[in-house]
């Protein structure tokens, strides 16, 4: 069984690989969430819709456990007083739990 990195180790590695990282930029935080979904093999997913010239990303959360994991990761990497998935995804969050 492969040992997974802690959230802090994962976040630090992704931030280093990315180069420039702005902790208050929602798009940078979304990138970390996307990578975490793949890395930790979560059932949650991001749906991308293109409407006109707008790109809308909707986060579909499969369970409360996965929601808490992604929220914890966002809190570790984010530089906001109140960090939430709703703020990062502009209220485009669907809970399936």
TrEMBL record:
<dbReference type="Pfam" id="PF19945">
    <property type="entry name" value="DUF6407"/>
</dbReference>
<dbReference type="InterPro" id="IPR045640">
    <property type="entry name" value="DUF6407"/>
</dbReference>
<protein>
    <submittedName>
        <fullName>Uncharacterized protein</fullName>
    </submittedName>
</protein>
